[in-house]
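>> received
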Amino acid sequence: MGRPRTPLLDRERITTAALELVDAQGEFSVPQIARRLGVQTGSLYHHVDGRDGIVELLRERVAEAIDATTLDLRPWDAAMAAWARSYRAAFAAHPRAIPLLMTNPVRAPRVLEHYERAVTLLLDAGFRTADVMPVIIALENMVLGSALDLAAPEAMWEIADVAATPRLAEALAALGDSRTDRSFDFALEGFLAHARRTLEARGGASG
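>> returned
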């Protein structure tokens, strides 16, 4: 019998199966992926470096949707804002992957390249080396929290007795549509304002 024209198993198929499992249940196991692909569990180890290797393939797959060219924009704060929005959209498409990816060290080379570009952007803008990673990590915390918020129910507060919490009810009624977008814009503007003040306090340029 001749070889099949399309390989039964490769890294792309493994990544797709793993991401489908994570999107559905928030987790995956190597045996689950094998069953989904109709192969023996041991066969996967010919293509990936165990579970940790699959996690990094997932990280690369999700990060493919982040537009790294945003980090070429100037001034630096415009670049960070555009990167943050693209980053948020990429992870909002797979919110159940966030806890998995955030609790495993980043090793994927293509993802590390994103960080290298972000670090370079901030250093070129005049940030101190010691301030660069706190800026990036703070931005990520905000972005990923907002990505999870996009997957949350539209009504996150259910008030049974308006008389018990009248001011909360009034504030929620005034919130209107686009809760998550408005909240993200508010947080992003505050983050960038603080980052600008940090840069100016160190004597860096503002653009």
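>> Residues 179-201 form the longest helix (23 residues).
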